[in-house]
Amino acid sequence: MSRSQENMRLTDYFLPVLKEVPKEAEIVSHRLMLRAGMVRQQAAGLYAWLPLGYKVLRKIQAIIEEEQARAGAVEMLMPTLQSADLWRESGRYDDYGKEMLRITDRHDRDLLFGPTNEEMITDIFRSFVHSYKQLPLNLYHIQWKFRDEIRPRFGTMRSREFLMKDAYSFDLDKDRAEEAYRRMFVAYLRTYYRMGLTAIPMQAETGPIGGDLSHEFIVLADTGESGVFCHRDLLDKPIPPRDTDYKGDLSPIVKDWTSLYAATEDMIDMERFEREVPEDKRIAARGIEVGQIFYFGTKYSKVMGASVMGPDGKEAFVHSGSYGIGLTRLVPAIIEACHDDDGIVWPVSVAPFEVALLNLKVSDAQCSSVCEDLYAGLQKAGLDVLYDDRQDGAGAKFASADLIGIPYQLVVGPRGAKAGEVEIKNRKSGERTTLPLDRAIQTLKDWIEPERRDRI
RNA sequence: CGGAGUAUAGCGCAGUCUGGUAGCGUACCAUGUUCGGAACGUGGGGGUCGCAGGUUCGAAUCCUGCUACUCCGACCA
After folding, report:
1. By C-alpha distance, which of A149, A139, A168, A145 is closest to A80?
2. Are residues A114 and A176 in the same domain?
């Protein structure tokens, strides 16, 4: 599993930071994403991902892929456009409503821009899988979806076009399908934790996708769109470790996480909440939904004829679930959870760069030569570094490094360069450490590597 | 989809009421002095004033229509 290493000199990069906030931006994550030059709105609910934002998106994607693989899901890629016929089979072509973008091609064939992929994956499954021996199977892809929201808002939090990971599990019966559900449940806990988020699974409505077992994963944030109620201890529950045996029984973990009451406002049973959660443990807050998992049984396999031969020689419709994570929503969700007055404060694991090397005086030969050596050394040490080699003054460099939220700033000024000293600033704590030049790289390495959360 | 707004330089805004050569800040280019928290001086470039019609000698400004975007509500990964 390789990390994306894309070191960069700022003078070669494309980072259009804004001093002023475009007036359309309402919530803090949207404002910061625009100011940090991460995205640009191209139309209502449609965003171009600029290099810095795209880099974060790819780091998020890499974490999701690692954890999906760990849980046994297999990655593939399905097209964005789908045939209407497939959706007529499931009956959803008429049910889905105006949220689904319908398209006609030159031959007058009805197409749609996929809002989700249950039909297509079921079609693929039924074409190739005919035996229980090929189960369990969990296929997923990370692909752009389109839902023609009545009112897109909050930047990429609720955009019309959005990038989503959607996984689909196939099992012989309900018990095995619930095992698949638990594998995704555990994978999700790990996925969000690795991104520096505290996400709480909550009972959820199953919505238009249908089914009878579902959890939403919610990150607490004041700007969240849904009201949530839960037990405080859920915030500190231990995350299942990387060596969790996904082939083993995961129900103790799921039971532990679901034993404490947690529900969104749509599902809340106030009486039960007050009965089960002691007053000092009650949290009533707002949250952002960053994922949802469903078990929906044979809902699609029946109507679309996806069945396998069982060990008993009988043909059975497969039991399925679907498991979504909105990547383009996760980016603002992380920012909502991780920012201060000066800008974004990225967790190391999703930061576009791990270190910002700030050359405070490019015109000073010694200062620049020290920076060049550090830049080469940091790359060699496997750190993801952005070198601010612009001609600007120190203040501008501090301000933009703070704004774009790089976790560590390695600050090199002419005075320090002469004395053989550099300074490291921790973006989150604001703490500054002055240390000898020759210890800078190793120190950063020692601080950063554990924070990547890729060994937990 | 109901309600409310906005549209003038990349971004933030003034100018519109009361029609008369389109402005400010910032960003950008050149240049000099600066250089540890978004430096300063001097000079410079950039706008069919959202679009289409109309009124008028003359429209950013008045009138009509359209479009786009934003906010509040109902809906949602």
Report:
1. A145
2. yes
